[in-house]
Amino acid sequence: MAHDVDVHRTMLSLELTLERTNPKGTLVFDGTNPNLFGATNLRRAATIPTEFHSGSARPLVGPVIAQTKRVVRRALRWYVAGIIDQQSRFNHQVVDAIENLTVRQEHLVTALADLEQQSQRQAEEILLLRGQLGDTATAPVAGSAAR
Fold first, then answer.
1. Can you spell out the DSSP letters for 22-90?
2. In which element (H, E) is residue 19 found?
3. Whole-model pTM above 0.85?
4. Which pLDDT value is given to residue 2?
5. Of the candidates 5, 86, 17, which has an alpha carbon nearest to the alpha carbon of residue 47?
């Protein structure tokens, strides 16, 4: 069995590969994906549009429906614009926070991996020192054989 294999990272890498091939799957939270929370897509969707195409596919009444939609939207625009603007600003702040948390989480994952490696090295050193102490404890001390 290889001692250099990081099973945790290998499994996370596998999950990321599966996520890329099946984007509707589970969100993998390991810090190696720069678009971990889909922040790129969220950034585009953060701004709520206020202008929409006003149309209708109905043959006879379609133009009347389209004109009515335009008039109603223009009449409500002054009321809705402030609310939509405020919501868009909030959405962008949330995306900023998600991006900041993603960066912080990536740093924490890296720090954790470093600490795990350091802990592993220290554990190996402790085992080595215990082995050396055990050899010293069982070795005869000079002059003790004469007793």
1. -TTSPPP-SS--TTTT-HHHHHHHHSPP---------TTTHHHHHHHHHHHHHHHHHHHHHHHHHHHHH
2. helix 7-21
3. no
4. 47
5. 86
